Amino acid sequence: MTNDGTCAPDVYDALVAVVGEGHVITDPDVLASLATDHTGRWSGRASARVRPADAAEVSAILTVCRERGVKVTIQGGRTGLVAGTVPEHDDILLSTDRLVDIGEVDRDELRVTVGAGVTLARLHELATDAGLLFGVDIASRDSATVGGMVATNAGGLHTVRYGNMSAQVTGLEVVLPNGTIVRRHPQVRADNTGYDLLSLWSGSEGTLGVVTAVDLRLRPEPPRRVCALAGFGSLEDAIAAGRTVLASDGVDALELIDGRGLQLARDHLGAEVPTGHPWYVLVEFSGNHDRTDELAAALSQCAVRGEPAVGIDTAGRQRVWAAREVFADLVGLFGPPVKFDAALPPDTLADFTHEAVAVVNDLVPDAIPVLFGHLAEGNIHFNVLRCPDDAALYPAILDLVRKHRGNVSSEHGVGTLKRNYLDLSLTRADIAAMWTLKRAFDPENFLNPAVLFPDSYRLPDPGRLPDSGRLPDSGRS
Amino acid sequence: MTNDGTCAPDVYDALVAVVGEGHVITDPDVLASLATDHTGRWSGRASARVRPADAAEVSAILTVCRERGVKVTIQGGRTGLVAGTVPEHDDILLSTDRLVDIGEVDRDELRVTVGAGVTLARLHELATDAGLLFGVDIASRDSATVGGMVATNAGGLHTVRYGNMSAQVTGLEVVLPNGTIVRRHPQVRADNTGYDLLSLWSGSEGTLGVVTAVDLRLRPEPPRRVCALAGFGSLEDAIAAGRTVLASDGVDALELIDGRGLQLARDHLGAEVPTGHPWYVLVEFSGNHDRTDELAAALSQCAVRGEPAVGIDTAGRQRVWAAREVFADLVGLFGPPVKFDAALPPDTLADFTHEAVAVVNDLVPDAIPVLFGHLAEGNIHFNVLRCPDDAALYPAILDLVRKHRGNVSSEHGVGTLKRNYLDLSLTRADIAAMWTLKRAFDPENFLNPAVLFPDSYRLPDPGRLPDSGRLPDSGRS
Question: Which residue among A95, A128, A152 closes a domain?
Answer without folding.
Answer: A95
